[in-house]
Amino acid sequence: MSGAVVHRLAIAGASGRMGQMLIEAVRHSGDCELGGALDVAASPSIGTDASAFSGHASGVLIQSDIRTGLQDAGVLIDFTRPEGTMAHLAVCREMGVKLVIGTTGFSDAQKAEIAAASKDIAIVMAPNMSVGVNVTLKLLEMAAKALNSGYDIEIIETHHRHKIDAPSGTALKMGEVVAQALGRDLKGHAVFSREGITGARDPSAIGFSAIRGGDIVGDHTVMFAGIGERIEITHKSSTREGYADGSLRAARFLAGHKTGLFDMFDVLNLR
Question: Pick from 64, 62, 51: which is nearest to 21 by CA?
């Protein structure tokens, strides 16, 4: 890689399923190197080699101290939980480390804090880093603009039994994209539950359904139900590799930016 740009990346949640997938993606990337690995202090993996699970030695030990874990990295990739990401954000802002955020479930106040931090460091934040999902979002934008009347919109998402938030961040993003294309505010039109005598459907509503079970990585369908026809746009994930590959693309994108808040539409030039 003589003369080539090498991206030094730290991985949060390094001993988790997504963390390990990211570490493997870095190892096989050709232009990225593992510069740090983080996990919670209670993890039994603290102090072990971050690539030990794969039978390879990276020379990078998993750390619980955030500053130590970030000292040799230019970008942190974070797929953890909101409280963990916010702790990482504060240290990244202090140290000038850029951030790729795939965590979901943030409050409005936490989102505002992330936006404020982007004035000091460059951040890519997206509820789903998959290239395929983000192309799907673009298709949904196009469909919503064309099907802007006479079609009822429902979003159905399915995930594994261990997922702790619902609807998924990806489903909410799909709702936001559709609502924006229709000139609506999702908060005022989203319907997250139906029970009992609900009355006739509000034609401006955007409905959500969440299913949890088994080991399903992630399925999302947006239905445009009209009279005499319906259009369904679906994305299905069978592994997390797409999330990892998209995350590395986001990290490479950040090499060209010092500050700012971006999403995968920016990374993939889908604007």
Answer: 51
Distance between CA 260 and CA 49 in Å, rounded? 33
pLDDT given for residue 1 in this prediction: 47
What is the pTM (predicted TM-score) of this model?
0.84
Contacts of 193 (CB under 8 A, 6+ apart): none
Question: Which residue is catalytic, options 159, 173, 220, 235?
Answer: 159
Answer for the pair 96, 142: CB distance below 8 angstroms, yes or no.
Answer: no
* 123 beta partners: 99, 261
Q: Which residue has the tokens 């609502």?
A: 179
Fold: same for 7-125+240-267 and 131-237: no
Tell me if residue 7 is catalytic. no
β-bridge partners, 224: 153, 231
Q: In whole angstroms, give the CA distance from residue 181 to residue 87.
A: 34
Which amino acid, one-letter code, is at 262? F
Nearest residue to 26 (alpha-carbon basis) of 4, 1, 13, 7: 7
Q: What's the pLDDT tens digit per position in 23-35?
A: 999 999 999 999 9
Nearest to 254 by CA among 132, 125, 86: 125
- Are 174 and 141 in contact by the 8 Å Cβ rule? The answer is no
3-state SS, residue 38: strand
Q: Does domain 7-125+240-267 have CATH number 3.40.50.720?
A: yes
User: Contact at 8 Å (CB) between 142 and 117?
Assistant: no
| Mean of pLDDT values over 109-133 | 96
Q: Sketch the domain layout of the chain as residue ranges.
A: 7-125+240-267, 131-237
Task: Locate 25 and state its tokens.
Answer: 């993606």
pLDDT of residue 5: 82
Cβ proximity of 41 and 34 under 8 Å = no
Could you confirm whether domain 131-237 is CATH 3.40.50.720? no
220 is catalytic: no
